[in-house]
Backbone:
């Protein structure tokens, strides 16, 4: 009976596996975006879904009673690991997670939990989270609203501990295991102290750094004034997209078509309206400079991130996609709407014309 149940769950997980992979990619990019706004430097950010074989083996090797619902009770079907440089950055990311997601505290290990003196080793922060209701109600996120995410937040030294300590402490010899555990305790303390020292050195470098003064009788060269960042206007937006033979406009129009949005040849009037709506949503999303827009577009172009976001929108609305009209400006409109929702959700989208722009793309 138990074996048959595990097989049924395994078959069901195979059907859901692609959804969990997609969910990992979406959450990885969301976390990356949220963390970047805190000016935290990330060493690495990884995401993965548990493979069907791993899922099946975990349930098969489980001792005792099986979970009532593994899709709800197995916490790490989808995992994102965030590796950081300093403990203070870990605290910042922990705050972001607490503010942006629903946290399952009984299944999580917070920074307060790590203060327990009985905890062995240099443990890291772990959060089991899900989407908040406001994000889960969005069409592009609603299919993920019941999914859990296992988030590991570590410094690089905590990652070293997590990677090495299981290999060392796996011995079955009681005497040897006791000796190794004492040695591991000392290593754990050294790693924790090293993390604290790195943090101290960084803060000290900030506090005590002084400008280098020129040697006596050496001419003082006045620094060049920084180039003023151009304010984003509708004309500068058009100029950016139409430069180099409409390179940017054509790239995003082609990307939307490759994702699966219907091909169409827009009339000039449609393109002008698309430009206007893109300018409106950029202004509402507080992308107010040419350099700011360039930075956003570069971010969307790297690692196919923009293509993945458009694919997510396409998948969410696939049943109604035949009426959509996505030109180059409209494709970027959708990216801004998706990636800057945390800013846009607090704006009057109806009054600013953002909703009208969205409905127009859908052919409504």
Residues:
């Amino acid at each position: 009976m138990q074996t048959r149940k595990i097989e049924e769950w395994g078959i069901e997980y195979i059907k859901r596996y692609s959804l969990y992979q997609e969910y990992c990619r979406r959450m990885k990019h969301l976390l990356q975006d949220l963390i970047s706004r805190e000016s935290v430097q990330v060493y690495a950010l990884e995401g993965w879904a548990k493979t069907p074989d791993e899922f099946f083996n975990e349930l098969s090797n489980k001792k005792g009673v099986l979970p009532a619902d593994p899709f709800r009770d197995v916490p790490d079907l989808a995992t994102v690991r965030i590796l950081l440089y300093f403990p203070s950055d870990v605290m910042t990311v922990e705050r972001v997670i607490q503010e942006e997601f629903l946290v399952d505290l009984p299944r999580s290990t917070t920074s307060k939990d790590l203060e327990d003196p009985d905890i062995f080793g240099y443990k890291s922060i772990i959060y089991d989270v899900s989407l908040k209701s406001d994000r889960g109600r969005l069409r592009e996120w609603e299919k993920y609203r019941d999914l859990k995410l296992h988030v590991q937040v570590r410094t690089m030294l905590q990652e070293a501990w997590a990677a090495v300590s299981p290999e060392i402490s796996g011995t079955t010899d009681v005497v040897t295991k006791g000796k190794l555990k004492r040695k591991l305790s000392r290593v754990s303390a050294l790693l924790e102290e090293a993390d604290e020292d790195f943090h101290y050195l960084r803060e000290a470098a900030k506090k005590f750094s002084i400008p280098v003064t020129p040697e006596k009788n050496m001419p003082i060269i006045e620094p060049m004034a920084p180039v003023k960042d151009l304010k984003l206007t509708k004309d500068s937006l058009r100029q950016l997209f139409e430069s180099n033979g409409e390179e940017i406009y054509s790239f995003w129009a082609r990307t939307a078509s490759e994702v699966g949005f219907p091909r169409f040849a827009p009339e000039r009037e449609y393109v002008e309206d698309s430009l206007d709506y893109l300018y409106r949503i950029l202004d509402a999303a507080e992308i107010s400079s040419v350099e700011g827009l360039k930075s956003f577009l570069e971010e969307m172009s790297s690692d196919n991130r923009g293509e993945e976001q458009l694919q997510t929108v396409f998948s969410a609305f696939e049943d109604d996609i035949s009426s959509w009209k996505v030109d180059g400006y409209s494709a970027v409109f959708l990216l801004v709407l998706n990636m800057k929702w945390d800013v846009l959700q607090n704006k009057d989208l109806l009054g600013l014309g953002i909703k009208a722009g969205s409905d127009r793309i859908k052919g409504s």
